[in-house]
Amino acid sequence: MPVRVAKFRIGQVVRHRFFPFRGVIYDVDPEFSNAEDWYQAIPEEIRPRKDQPFYHLYAENEQSCYEAYVSEQNLLADGEHGPVRHPMVKQAFSTLTDGCYAMAMGNPAQNPN
After folding, report:
1. Which residues constitute the domain of residue 91?
2. What does pTM read for this prediction?
């Protein structure tokens, strides 16, 4: 079975291909790893394949901040290069350079022991 390499990386600012939100990637699943009822709730005509990376995002739109779970096929690199206002971004990451946040020192994700 071929190994999939994620197109995007943790800390990268991305936007959804179809819906008006953007966010910072904080985790990656090599393939779909969410609840089946969540997957089935997506309309069939836009339902993504399961055999691709799925990304956990600290997301924002004009109205709110939230967490999102998005397939690789539905993400694009963000062209704004501006900060994401989700409150967890300041806790998990530090500086923003060229559309990518650096992991904050002391972030548990850096030391999974």
Report:
1. 13-104
2. 0.88
